[in-house]
């Protein structure tokens, strides 16, 4: 039993040693692959005022050049003409809308005028003297027409001779 414990202890120690060796190897690889800031950025030194002003002037010149390039592209495409056409189209649409609303208003005014005229005619027709003429005679008779035989039932509704 003592032998088993001793073998177990030796195996455990051997495992620890192997792990430590692997750890040292991997750490060495990581250290080799690390890039220092100096290697990455190189020889960077701060700009003095003259160099800074020169850099700003170069940037401004590049911006102006890009703006001029874009403006020339815009003029070659006829963007201004397209915008002018769109403006004219919008103006035409607005004029058409105004004409439509004016026509609708005129139509509503005509309808109101007709309603007013109709109401005036109704007031005139309520004049009692004119009503008397339109009523007709009290002695008028309506002729009653007899229904034909097909409209009557077969009971004794028919006023005629019995065969």
Structure, explained:
The structure is a single chain. The protein has helices at 2-33, 37-41, 49-77, 79-125, 128-135. The chain is mainly alpha-helical.
What's this model, at a glance?
This protein has 163 residues and is mainly α. Helices cover 74% and strands 0% of the residues.
Cα shape: elongated
Q: What's the total helix number?
A: 5
Q: Mean pLDDT, rounded to whole units?
A: 79
Structural classification = mainly alpha
Q: Could you give the distance between the termini?
A: 144 Å
Strand content: under 5%
Oligomeric assembly: single chain
Task: Present the secondary structure layout.
Layout: H1 2-33, H2 37-41, H3 49-77, H4 79-125, H5 128-135
Keywords:
74% helix, mainly alpha, elongated, 163 residues
